[in-house]
Design brief:
6-stranded mixed beta sheet; 26% strand; 6 strands; 3 helices
Amino acid sequence: MVSDHGLSETTRHFPLNQFLERRGFKTLFYPKIIRWGCRAAGMVSGNAMGHVYLARPEGGLARWSDEELMADGLPLIHRLLDESGIDLVLTLASDGAVVVRSRR
């Protein structure tokens, strides 16, 4: 998943890593770069963009598809879009298409 404010003026900050932690995902993020047992990684680029990586329950490095994220009871996409500091959420469909969601 990826979220982006765009390159327009940013008037608010969205604490992506705190968002993930509050939802039960022990999260690897800067400056907490050494943490064991993390289920998510939040890689934030200032107020412009954040990449979210989620561990799969069975382990391994396979990507989550958009279909899995929407069907697996992980309401993260909808919860992200509920936040005023988030404009876009992009995921990758199983056929390789990019899925773009926005409140707009």
